[in-house]
Amino acid sequence: MEKTKNIFVTDKESNIQIGKDITSNLISSLTGNMFSFSLGLMLLNITNSPLSFGLEMIIMPLVNLLFVVPIGNIVDSVAHKKIIISSLLSRLLALFILSATIGFFKDNYLFIPITIFVTINTICSNFNSTAYSAAIHEVVNQNHIQKLSSFTQAASSLSAIIAPPLGMTLYSLLGFKWMIFLEIFASLISFAIVLSMHFHYSPRKKQVSSIQKKNTRLTSQIKKFSNGLKYIHRQKLIMEMITIGIFINFLFTSLTIGMPYILSNNLHLGNGSISFLESGNSIGMLLGSLIIGIIPDKLSMKRKLFCSLIPTILSFICLGIVLACLKGYLTITILGTLLMVILGFSLIILNVTTQVFLQKSVPTDLLGRVMSSITTINTSVMPIGTLVFALLFAHIHEGAWILITNGVIMLAYSLWRMTKI
Question: What is its main location (predicted)?
Answer without folding.
Answer: membrane
